[in-house]
Fold:
Amino acid sequence: MGIPFAPSPPGRVTRWVRRNLFRTPFDGVVTVVGGALALYVVYRLVRFVLVTGRWDVVRDNLKLFMVGRYPTVHLPRVSVSVIVAALAAGLVAGIVHRRQLAAGTSTVAHLSPAARVLDLVQRFWPVLLGAVLVLALTTTPGPTLTAVGALIAAVLGRVVGARLPKRSHWVVVLAAVATPFVLVGYLADALGWDGWGGMMLNIFLAVVSIILCFPLGVFMALGRRSHLPLIRWLCTGLIEVVRGAPLFVLLLMANVALGFFVPREWAPSDVMRAITVFTIFTGAYVAEIVRGGLQSLPRGQEEAGRALGLSPARVTFLIVLPQALRNVIPAQVGQFISLFKDTVLVGAAMGLFEVLRVATAVTTQGEFQGQNLLPETFGFVALLFWVGSYTMSQESQRIEHKLGVGER
Amino acid sequence: MTEAVFADATQVTGSGEPIIVLEGVDKFFGDFQALKDINLRVGRREVVVVIGPSGSGKSTMIRCINRLEKHDAGRIVVDGTELSDDLRNIQEIRRETGMVFQQFNLFPHLTVLDNIALAPRQVRKLPKRVAEEAAMQLLERVQIPEQARKYPGQLSGGQQQRVAIARALAMTPKVMLFDEPTSALDPEMINEVLDVMKDLAREGMTMMVITHEMGFAREVADRVVFMADAQIVEVGTPQHFFEDPQEERTKLFLSQIL
Amino acid sequence: MRVLRWVFQIAVVGAVVGLLLVLIGNVRSNSSELGIPTGYDYLDNPAGFPIADSDFNQRQPVRDAIRIGVINTLRVSLIGIVLATVLGTLIGLARLSQNWLLRNAARVYVEVIRNIPLLLIVIFAYAGIALVLFPRITEPWEPLGIAIISNRGVVVPWHDASGWGIVAVGAVAGVVAWLVARLRRRHADRTGTPARSGLWGGVAFAVVAAAGWLLVGADVTLPELAGRGTTGGIRMSPEFFAILFALVVYTASHIAEIVRGSIQAVPRGQAEAASALALSGFQRSWFVVLPQAFRIAVPPLGNQYLNLTKNSTLGSAVSYFELAQVTSISVANGAPAVPSYLLTLLIFLAISLVLSLVVNVVNRRLALVER
Structure:
């Protein structure tokens, strides 16, 4: 929201204030009244955060919030997982940077290293803020060491990733996609599926479902555009039925009714049920987004591919799909943000011990009971989700700008 | 701006006082200067054609005249009213100036008739019947009365631009500003629009026209203004301008387009 | 080649049908093993549970409970849609304001609310606001002595819902308002003066409605404390308040973005052309920009309305008896799970279909005429 300035005559500030705050008398009233109100809200908020907030309820239960009932002796596994994930993210970022350099689309290539760090801070300040606040609430050195380790791993990955030979890129990217599954296995090894809890469970559900729903969504989208009528009807029906259903009801249903659909000895664990529902549900939305991307592609692309003598399958997978998927990245990210936020539903619908349920539960335990500490615990959880969602949405807007989508 | 160019730019054709006066106008977009010290006068009933490479500031100049862009320095006077931050002054000037855009900018949700009658009804407070009768007369003047009940999306580009001209004329302006009125048209439709503009000029309308149609400039213009790099480089009668350009920049431009 | 295609399709469909058959078979065998019926006969069984804020009796059949659930879902959804649209539009316009403070306050609202889970807002509105911030029923707030606000809900005066008189008054007032507005527009067309038909119609409506209301008796019941409860007026339960509040606050943040995006999506040239014709700021918005923005906004708005309706199921997290809550309580009270949930899904599917049908019709009627 840049304000176009004429080359600075004196009184720039005065002019800005007049133009942006006191344009008309009514505007002035809005500014004064709204300003007073805003100041009061900010004052109350700051007081709540610094003075009146009973943050000990969060501090004492921080482990519960973050990792649920994960056994303390196994906590190093969480640290290792975070560091490995940071390394993978760093590697991918490095590769992306390298490719952008090669294609000349990098926006940071001309910046000095210091300016690049500043750019990163501007982009990821919510994450930094969240990390600092969480670390401020810790009482043991473990989390801080983990955070430092993750930072080092990310930087290392970024540096190494940018120097990897081009041929190895697809191996690294595949490995990065596989990493979450390896880490999940590694983490679950310590306590099994249903012991998961806290923010770790929310992130786990979101990440696994995102990775699984993506191919499902793409195939349903292709199916819905298929020339084969039966396949088309099948996919259309599935997509529309799932999209017409409330996610919460699907989760309730998975909780009490899914068991009826399989032989009883196969009855899946609660976490598996949740993942199944999230995957199918988000898959249907992804399918519609991908279909939009396919439809918005000019017909000429497909015709050009055909004219080159490519088979229909190759035209789809080599020409049409890559462009369509690229164009819908922002919409996809939006859908994934929804999924991330929706992971809190598994607490209310299935009784899993995810972070919102932790936030409710800790306000009823012994010393914190009956003191209305919901603002503190819910505020903390809201912050965690806000950090994740806001960062994702800002990044997706960056991508959107880069793609030039929605620009006139 | 050299003194010779200044003299050409401020000396209106024919007699009488100028209806549009630009004095030392500057315009910035951020750090980019779009207009540098523009001085120009347009006389009553005069037709001034503005040409120049894209990005030279032609559009910005005529968009400053009816305050679609705000100039940062200098004076702009239209028919005795000086353009200032005062909203009444701005509206006064906008009522006196009609504008035709490259992209027509017809209102797609209104019929052709409503497009033309909207401003007379809302701004001039004319009764509906009066405004619509006037609109029909204008449509006859631009030779598409049969399209009155259609929507802009149903018309060809040439027809749309003629409706846009009728819409601007409906406010009975003293000055008409044309911002590349034929650039978005298919070649076969350019003439139908130019013909309407020629008729207007013949009837004595004061016009400022940005165009790449050199034939139109030769035939209709009283003066041709050549702009480049945010400045007015050369001003002259069509004959003078096309046969005997003075500035190197002008010669280069003419050699590229002719 | 063609044969191959059909073989492939039939194989896929066969596999899907086979899978469905296996699943249905599993449901049957699992149910019979557990002694649970699989049909829809349970709808006539007594529900066995009460429903707060209704005269539902637990000996009434499940069918009635479901009907109340559907009504409650529709009630909170419809009121939510109206309020969220109003709030969202205001915030969306505020985001485009020239006032820096207003613009950024709206932006902060949108960026905060959009990025936190709805369920968090729902539960907080219930357990953090409605039950805690509102005083106990023994010491309620009684602003102006006409309303009672406590953690038992908000009670406001209401017309004593007896007979159709009030409906008739509303209808007459509506017709009169319509006639007055039409007359004003005709007059404006003739003379060119501003029509202000909305203002005149509104005043006419208010005058006629007030007169008619006095005529039919003006029965208003004021809320009164009665022991640990209230009588008279109309009561909004804390549960209803919480889900409605959360739905409105959350959906408004999304609607605000739609409103802003739609207005910004109207090409700049449109506003410029209007300015060049000397239309004033208000006329520019009202006659040129907003009608076109509305057109752009309809499909995504319809989507948000659909989302809001589906999100109303989160009411069950605070025990508001909408459809999902009725279903899960009735399953807990012995109704068979699979048929119950399938029925619920079917009802939501029907609601979605009707809503998207309405959106499609509106969309088609608004579509620009192109050649």
